[in-house]
Recover the amino acids of this structure.
């Protein structure tokens, strides 16, 4: 162990707070290239994966991403599940999705390439930081290779939405590396800015400050307050911004996502301890992995006598004993435990309730501490076998190879939605969410009978779950069982009156039965709860128009467009209303907006030409027609304009 020299306290200089230089020779650049290559190689088969599950809400259904609206990304929650179950504020991650979307739309390859490259970058930066902190290049590199291949990282890398973990880890570690470089005030400001971005990628990057301070204490280096206070200020600023946007530090999750949402303080504590044992098993023996640990797959622990709690207490006791021993005998071991504990604490649900009880992606940064501890064991055993590094390299290669094989195997789960959701239920058969999500996937495959069976299984596991009842209603509508669907929607609303989408689909189910008055009533019930839901105004407008109440419908279409100016369906339907009342000028203006919203749609341009003609605006009609012919020369409806009257 190398400890930095300490000058006389009365004459502390900038050099006095520098970390120790590595005790071993710095690793060559080739080792870092190889480390990055291994990280990429482990995830090459993930590049064939689709956008599935949470990727859809974060990217495909996120208007801020689709429209590359950076201002909206900065000012609103980052993703919106259709049922409002949980939201988050991660604008840096969302902006990266928007950049991907601007380049290649929803084609999944580019998203997966970025995730894989980010993982490789994290591995290299982690190893670089560990070289400087531990002073042992061999130890740092072995830890980096173990981290690159560990199977518990598959969810963070192969699932596109896991990019939040990758960016938080990369930016947090990069900020720490800048501080370790000690290049003066400018570098400290840069580190603070990088960490600010890291926390806005995901909040767990904030733990890096505590890890950096712990490293100085463990390795007995003087604390550089001038370096750490800007990092702490950056974390505070990012958390404050998040609180302002979301209206609180952490939105309260629902029971299905995190059973602790309704737990007593004692049950919350015991459950968190029980979960520690499961996380430890995932790190030590990453054979059985799962994309879901929601209720009741992981049920509440109500007593310290629960075997799961006892196992968690045993893990904590062993970790505490190892850290204590390491403080006196082996500081690398103490630092490894501190790294894992401090980065895990922020996602443990102990300090603050988060959106999920547990998830493998949450181990991404804490696993670095475990990998360092495992690397220490490998290096120690290798040294006892022989002085030459051959034994250490061989041992590390075996473990990394086994990890890599399991990682490649696990990546295949993210290939497509049917594969993913089938595996989700197989891996978490007691999870109500797993069965619900498989049901939705089966319904999309037109296997509605199987879908209903999965929904019913989900409701047996978690009775009266409002979102599941809502989803069951959607599947029943597709099978034409409208009466049962209406009953499911009504029950979901009874349990959760703020579920706006349930009012929308309840009204539409009544409309399909031909009862427009009941449909109108359902939409108005929803608006009484939340008058800012554009979809409720839109569907109410449609119902009113079907009843022949044109003036009332127009008011609702206008309100929809005010709330959601880029809503294509609202403008299309409003255009239809305007055409029906002979207001061709106004209809043409709606189509001018639609041309900018759906520039790839030739029928919108055809409609614009026809309405401009009907309004007597012939010169504008000719210009619009010329533009349509230039953009869509082979489209039949565009060619028809040439032979239509006025063409």
């Amino acid at each position: 162990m190398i400890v930095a020299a300490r000058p006389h306290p009365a004459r502390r200089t900038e050099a006095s707070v520098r970390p120790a230089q590595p005790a071993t020779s710095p690793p060559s650049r080739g080792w870092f290239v190889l480390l990055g290559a291994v990280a990429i190689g482990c995830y090459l088969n993930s590049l064939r994966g689709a956008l599935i599950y949470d990727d859809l809400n974060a990217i495909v259904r996120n208007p801020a991403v689709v429209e590359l609206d950076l201002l909206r990304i900065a000012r609103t929650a980052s993703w919106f599940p259709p049922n409002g179950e949980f939201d988050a504020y991660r604008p840096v991650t969302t902006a990266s999705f928007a950049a991907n979307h601007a380049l290649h739309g929803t084609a999944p390859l580019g998203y997966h390439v970025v995730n894989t490259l980010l993982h490789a970058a994290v591995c290299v930066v982690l190893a670089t930081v560990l070289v400087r902190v531990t002073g042992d290049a061999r130890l740092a590199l072995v830890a980096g290779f173990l981290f690159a291949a560990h199977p518990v990282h598959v969810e963070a890398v192969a699932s596109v939405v896991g990019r939040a973990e990758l960016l938080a880890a990369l930016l947090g570690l990069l900020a720490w590396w800048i501080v370790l470089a000690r290049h003066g005030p400018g570098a400290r400001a840069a580190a603070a800015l990088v960490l600010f971005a890291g926390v806005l990628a995901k909040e767990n990057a904030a733990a890096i400050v505590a890890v950096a301070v712990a490293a100085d204490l463990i390795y007995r280096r003087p604390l550089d307050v001038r370096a750490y206070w800007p990092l702490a200020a950056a974390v505070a600023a990012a958390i404050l911004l998040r609180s302002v946007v979301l209206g609180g530090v952490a939105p309260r999750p629902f029971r299905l996502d995190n059973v602790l949402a309704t737990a007593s303080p004692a049950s919350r504590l015991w459950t968190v301890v029980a979960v520690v044992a499961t996380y430890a098993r995932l790190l030590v023996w990453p054979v059985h992995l799962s994309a879901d640990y929601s209720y009741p797959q992981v049920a509440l622990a109500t007593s310290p006598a629960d075997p799961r709690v006892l196992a968690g207490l045993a893990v904590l006791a062993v970790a505490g004993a190892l850290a204590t021993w390491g403080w006196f005998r082996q500081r690398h071991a103490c630092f490894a435990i501190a790294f894992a504990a401090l980065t895990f604490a922020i996602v443990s649900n102990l300090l603050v309730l988060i959106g999920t009880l547990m998830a493998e992606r949450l181990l991404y940064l804490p696993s670095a501490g475990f990998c360092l501890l495992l690397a220490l064991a490998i290096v120690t055993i290798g040294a006892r076998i022989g002085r030459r590094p051959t034994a250490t390299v061989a041992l590390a290669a075996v473990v990394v190879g086994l990890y890599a094989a399991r990682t490649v195997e696990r990546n295949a789960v993210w290939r497509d939605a049917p594969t993913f959701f089938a595996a989700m239920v197989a891996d978490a058969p007691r999870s109500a969410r797993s069965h619900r999500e498989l049901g939705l996937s089966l319904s999309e495959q037109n296997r509605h009978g199987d879908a209903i069976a999965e929904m019913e299984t989900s409701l047996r596991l978690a009775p009266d779950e409002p979102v599941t009842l809502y989803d069951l209603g959607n599947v029943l509508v597709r099978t034409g069982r409208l009466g049962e669907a209406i009953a499911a929607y009504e029950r979901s609303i009874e349990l959760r009156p703020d579920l706006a989408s349930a009012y929308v689909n309840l009204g539409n189910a009544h409309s399909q039965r031909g009862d427009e008055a009941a449909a109108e009533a359902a939409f108005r019930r929803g608006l009484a709860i939340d008058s800012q839901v554009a979809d409720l105004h839109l569907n109410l407008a449609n119902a009113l128009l079907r009843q022949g109440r044109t003036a009332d419908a127009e008011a609702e279409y206008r309100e929809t467009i005010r709330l959601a100016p880029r809503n294509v369906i609202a403008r299309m339907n409003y255009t239809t209303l305007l055409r029906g009342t002979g207001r061709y000028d106004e209809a043409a203006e709606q189509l001018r907006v639609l041309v900018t919203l759906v520039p790839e749609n030739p029928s919108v341009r055809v409609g614009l030409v026809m309405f401009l003609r009907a309004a007597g605006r012939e010169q504008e009609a000719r210009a619009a027609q010329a533009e349509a012919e230039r953009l869509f020369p082979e489209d039949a409806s565009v060619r028809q304009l040439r032979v239509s009257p006025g063409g």
About this structure: Residues 1-22 have pLDDT under 50 and may be disordered. Residues 171 and 198 are 5 Å apart (CA to CA). Residues 578-647 form a domain with the Serine Threonine Protein Phosphatase 5, Tetratricopeptide repeat fold (CATH 1.25.40.10).
